[in-house]
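User: I'm writing a tutorial on reading structure tokens. Could you give me a worked example: one chain, its sequence, then its tokens, then a sentence or two explaining what the tokens reveal?
Assistant: Sure. Here is the example chain.
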Amino acid sequence: MTQPAVSTRIRELEEAIGQTLFVRQGRGIAITLEGREFVSQAEQVLEQVERLSASVSAKTATGVVRIGASSMCLDVVAALASHLSVKMPNVSFDLVLERAGALLELLEARKLDVGILSGPVDLSRFTCLSLGYDRLLWVALPEVLAKIEANTEAGVKHWLEGVAIWCFHRHSFLWFDSTRELNALGVNLNQVNSVDNNLAAMHIVMSGGGVGLLSERMIGRELAAGNLLPVPGLPPSKDIEFVIACLKESSSHILSEVMNAAVELSELRRVSHPWQAAGHRP
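And here are its predicted structure tokens:
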């Protein structure tokens, strides 16, 4: 709403109840004693309305939930859509795939209702539920790794100088941690390619396009089958926690249903690796 529209609504409310709820204070406004009491009573009414709405069968819920997600969590979205298509058949999804920072901006701008993402989240602005943990591995095809001259730090560095490297987007909060090991090996970071979609990075690596930093859970089957192998000398990332988030003031019984279902359906690891708490890597 625009500022004049907000002012009009406040004036109409004050006229309707016959009380002054706000007073000017410098360049801003302050709530009055009557205003605080009004807010207290209004919150109780709104809670009752919310409980009444939640008591209505989910089958009657309608609308479109605008959901944003990291490409690393598409299986959560798929399970969520399948589950809710039965529980809330008249609710559909508009899905946006973006990196975490962009998803938070879209949530702030109210262009998304919920977001599935990783990284730091302002808990004063957002309601978050943990979905679990994942980590990232540097991997490549066996035939690509076979070109390493020697399984030593010098051999790996020399090999990396002649292979395409795919990493997270440079504006991602993961970029610095992701390139730390490359930097330690003396790899020129200017030669590192960035991609903001882990699914796309996986496709590139599986097509023989070089080495990539991929979700351990996403490539679990390929690792087990030996179709992808970890790059020697490049250890996995620290554990990354994923959450489902919405703006605190945007919560509703439909969004609560969506968020709680996502937690129940998530197959992300629920606890961090024990070696993470000890502060070292295997």
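What the tokens reveal: The mean pLDDT is 87. The first helix runs from residue 3 to 17.
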